[in-house]
Design brief:
Shape: extended
Number of strands: 0
Helix content: over 70%
Order of helices and strands: HHHH
Radius of gyration: 21 Å
Distance between the termini: 48 Å
């Protein structure tokens, strides 16, 4: 009932379904987790990890299929679009890793910090 109630509250406040999911996750983490025994936690973790991996794979499959399913004018894009995309993705990834590593290292001890290389 918890997901349904969170959905009704989010819908009543005219918020998105993502807000309902986040609210439900916070609610269940705070109230339901202490009431689940260790063996059940392991089973739930395996099930959630399996579902997460499966849905992530489906998203990337749909994205990959979508590249070829839509009518793109590949002649207008050319090779430079592909190369600039790769360059921009690598720059974005490097910045993301550096910023997140710096942020995480602020709260870690000297022994467990992520090294900058």
């Amino acid at each position: 009932m918890s997901p349904w109630i969170c959905y009704l509250i989010a819908d009543g406040l005219e918020l998105s379904g993502i807000v309902a999911i986040l609210t439900n996750g916070i609610f269940l983490n705070y109230y339901a987790e202490p009431n689940v025994n260790t063996a059940s936690r392991k089973v739930i973790k395996i099930a959630v990890d399996t579902i997460a991996y499966t849905t992530e794979t489906m998203v990337f499959l749909f994205l990959g299929i979508g590249v070829f399913a839509f009518d793109h004018k590949y002649e207008e894009m050319g090779l430079s679009t592909f190369l600039w995309t790769i360059v921009n993705l690598n720059i974005a990834r490097a910045l993301n890793v550096q910023i997140v590593s710096w942020w995480v290292n602020r709260s870690r001890s000297a022994k467990s910090k992520i090294p900058n290389k």
